[in-house]
Amino acid sequence: MVRKRELVPKRFPVNVTHVSGVVSGYELSAGPLGLPGFGSPTITPLATTGSAIIVRAQYGPGVWDDGMIWGVHASRQTTLRDQATVTGIGVHSGLPVTLTIHPAEPDTGVLFLRTAAHDRQDRELKADYRAVTATEFATVLGDHGGPAVSTTEHVLAALHGLGIDNAVVEVDGAEVPIMDGSAAPFVAAIDQAGVAVQAAPRRYIQVLKPVRVGKDDCYGELRPNLRGLRIEAEIEFDHPLIGRQSYAVDVAPHVFRRELARARTFGFMRDVAKLWSAGYALGASFDNTVVVAEDRVLNPDGMRFPDEFVRHKVVDAIGDLALAGAPLLGAYRSVRGGHKLNHAVVTALMADASAWCYVEMPQPARRSARGHAVAAAFAAPAYGPDVS
Known about the structure:
The protein is an alpha+beta fold. It has one domain: lpxc deacetylase, domain 1. Helix content is 15%, strand content 32%. The chain is built from six helices and 28 strands. It has helices at residues 153-161, 184-193, 253-260, 272-277, 308-321, 339-351, and strands spanning 15-16, 18-19, 22-23, 52-54, 68-69, 72-73, 76-80, 84-89, 96-103, 110-114, 123-126, 132-134, 140-143, 146-149, 167-171, 195-201, 203-207, 211-215, 218-224, 229-237, 243-250, 266-268, 290-292, 328-335, 356-360, 366-367, 373-374, 381-383. The strands form eight sheets. Strands 4, 17, 18, 19, 20, 21, 24, 25 and 28 form a nine-stranded mixed beta sheet that branches. Strands 1-8-9-15-10-11 form a six-stranded mixed beta sheet, covered by helices on one side. It has a three-stranded antiparallel beta sheet with strand order 12-13-14, with no helix packed on it. A hairpin with a 2-residue loop joins strand 18 and strand 19.
């Protein structure tokens, strides 16, 4: 169990607020960290009982924003410099909730810490596809004790979209706060806390062959793409304001901030009574949801993007794909999909030991005093999945 007092040496809360759906300080950034001092790279093989496969990282450093995340090369793991706290309500419960993102040690991954409620103990959950217990209206993580944390996709998308490998997400309620319905408040919190580069090499999941899951006219497919994570989404709703929309993007931190983070969740006015009677959407409002009537959007501030609906589906997909446990080197196509389909595709990928392997990015070339590149990049070893 990770105890709260062990997460960071000091507690410096970073509070993010929003007014009328606009995140205060969203454009603020902790600023570039500068290039770490890279020496000759050392690759430490990961323990695995799977078959070792040697592959050449064809695009080398050209991953995650051309290999750079705020001056951080794609070969290194990252965490937060400090903790960041946001407060809000659960979109389904309507109850207040506080979420704090803490720094974490290398190779931790993303952990959710559901703090004790009443007579229950704290619960620690790995952000992992095997921990998903429900996908009807949100992605819910749980364990043998049942569901623990719901609506995890937006904070996971923010962490993954900004290239954060290691974090402990502490939540004092059953849901991640919906904030303004987008990933932007979590991006703002991470930006204000800052990003720290860690010494450990980052490992990726390289998709080796297409993996497809479909039902009727809906399908999701992952296929190889050594340049990084690409999302291609298509949605279709029988509504004149939405209809068929598509959006494709190569995910990188600057792209996620500018083109995706502010896209909000949406719902139809015609479904409200049914959702409320089932105990869902009790916290939904114009402040956190794009509400669509028969002939118009009811939100006073309108839309943030002309195709905000499909962009938000891309955000959801990024968060759900993060449950693979490592950044993906692959292209994901989703047609009329959602949380259930995203989870099914990740599960299918990880179940097929021949469809993926781990790979570590090579270190970047260093510059000598004369400005000449010093060869420091080389093919990194990749390892097959642990199939024991």
